[in-house]
Design goal:
The chain contains 26 helices and 13 strands. It is an alpha+beta fold and 743 residues long. The protein has seven domains: 3-113; 145-208; 226-317, no CATH class; 364-410, no CATH class; 420-598, Cathepsin D, subunit A, domain 1 (Beta Barrel), CATH 2.40.70.10; 635-666, no CATH class; 674-742, no CATH class. The strands form three sheets. Strands 2-3-8-4-7-6 form a six-stranded mixed β-barrel. It has a four-stranded antiparallel sheet with strand order 1-11-10-9. A two-stranded antiparallel sheet has the order 12-13. A hairpin with a 5-residue loop joins strand 12 (650-652) and strand 13. The longest helix is centred in the N-terminal third of the chain and has 31 residues, at 3-33. 16% of the residues are buried. Mean pLDDT is 76; it is low at 108-130, 319-342, 414-428 and 716-743.
Length: 743
Amino acid sequence: MPESESYGLKELLKKRSTIKGRLTKFKEYLTVLSQIKPVDLTTLQIKEVTLRLAKFQELFSSFDNLQSQIELLSVDDDEQLKERDLLENQFYSSISTAQDILDAIPVTKERFDGSMASAVSGSCSHAINTVKLPTIKLPTFDGNYLKWLEFRDTFDSLINSNDSIPTINKFHYLRSALEGSATVVIKSIEFTTANYKVAWDLLCERYNNKNILINNHLKALYHIEPITRESFKALRYLIDQVSKNLRALGTLGLPTEQWDVLVVFMMSSKLDVTTNRKWEEHKNSLTTLPTLNDFNTFLRNRADVLETTQSTRCDRPDNKSHFKSQHSSKSLVAASTSTVAQKRICSICKNDHRVYLCPTFLEMSLKERQDKTDKLKLCANCLREGHNVNRCRLKGCCRSCKGKHNSLLHIEQENVLTSAPVSLAVSSTKQVLLCTAVVDIVNPQNNVCKPARILLDTGSQSCFITNALKNKLDLSINKINSVNVSGINNIGFNISERCHIQLNSRVSSFTTKLDCLVVPNITGTVPSKEIKLHNLKLPLNITLADPEFYEPSEIDILIGADVFWDIIGSQQIKLGPCLPTLQDSKLGWLISGPVGVACSKGKVICNFTQSDLHETMKKFWEVEELPASSKNNSLSLEEQLCETHFIQNTTRLSSGRFSVKMPFKESPEHSLGESFYSARGRFFNLEKKLYKNERTKKHYSDFIKVFTVNEGKIDTKGCSLIDFNEYSRFDKLKRIILKEFFE
């Protein structure tokens, strides 16, 4: 290190020692102050604490700038980072302790002069201000454009407009208020006082996009779900949603006050049949064109009527159940049980209504509804607890696709795949590493978790999962209309199954829900051949998303562009020319790019495989082809016996027809079993009956003699007393007797 830099570093370390001393003094001051009860603090002490805290926060900012300069000049980065963490923890602890002391001081604490008038005034003021107002919670923002305007205005009024809040604290509030994709916008910005304005401006630049905001609010208006049956809650929800989006569009400068005719027409198309008919009757009674206010007034009045009639029906006593409870031996228990059973507790908001009527549930997006249903383990068909969709007794189905799920959870096929083909990536003939990672895949139904190797591909419009992993996780399958997936050379493949999974990162708290199309295979082994690690010069202080990326292995899941950018971070490390690049992500560091080694000549890896037409036809003809005589060894023993029997017992009759004996697997003697004793018993019983009637015995004996002489052929002319035409030759012999005997 040059002498000038060494001297500068010593000066900075000396300044840091001074800050440490001031930090220690402030901690000692807080230790003494904490021994005094907040009520006993004087006005002078309160002001002193406030001034010291403000000065101490400025000292914290100075330390932050000073430590940054030290880290630039220091050679030992690890030691300086540890020093920063240690001192920052002490600063945060001291600021929190001082703030806690100030918060514990009563708001109405006054010091009186001693005069009666001021005492009376002070006592009145104390009585008025003892009411504790509820704490205003900071709004959160997850990147949803529909919530941006509300978040921006609220955060501006509570935080940005409050000059008493230090800038570094405003930055902390901003970071704690952001969730999901919104955190990615400012994640790479260093946490300093000077960068707060940069972070806020960057956030506004991202989400203050007027065109996107207008499109999202118009889309929300257009995609309001229609009301299927009369419900006062659904009508009020419709009014609230339309009013909220129209107010937002008006704030963005659109002339929404001139849209009455269009909005009324669109809203009326969302009404149920009965309410729509009532509206048409009401509209015909008007002399002028109805305005949006007229329409909203009609819906509010209609909702009031429905609520009143519904409450009347609920309050009406049930005479039948009351009669049953009086005659029950356990009336008290039965009555209490029926009361509990009739009460409908919503699993979402714990109010008395069904889940499909819950305003909170209806306001959620489709993905949020699916996540909430999986989290609460509700039936996807009836939205009730205690069973899954396979055991649901409700006969209803989705009104859109007739599938076994609730209409509120229906996914439009356009959201899964459009008519455009799904494109999948392909590598060149040079050895190129693709982005792979190892993650945990969870079945949301039974929480079964399995490790899986995924491939991240921005060239795919959907996510895919293999049949093998689907079977391992025992995933439930949703049947969809057959969609065509096209890959290289526009080779198509029809897919008709989709499943729902949860992806958990192994290196962070990142988790996401995925809808995957089920395919037999995604690609071959990736990479195609083993990579030598010593050629890559990987850093030692990073955590790889796929620790064994260099070994050829199967791919279980393909992640498309719909999730790819939620996973990718902002940092990159280039390993050099003709070498791969390391990319930061929520799954760990991804490695992708050329490795400087050529793969086998002419071998191209595609992320979707399709069997060759020639091979398919070849297999078809091999299955249909009859075995040749040289392949008799492939016949089973039974097949050989059957063929031998056919050759030996096939003859041609004089009429030209063929006669073939029926083959038996076993002889009748063996197949009938031990029937001798039962036959002998029946013969003895027949003898007893014949001995009782000599006439019957004589006719029976004559018939048997004729039957024996003719070798089993019955001559109806020789036995004129018997009507043989009435009986089938398959009937039992005991039925061939004299009709006169029974008459």
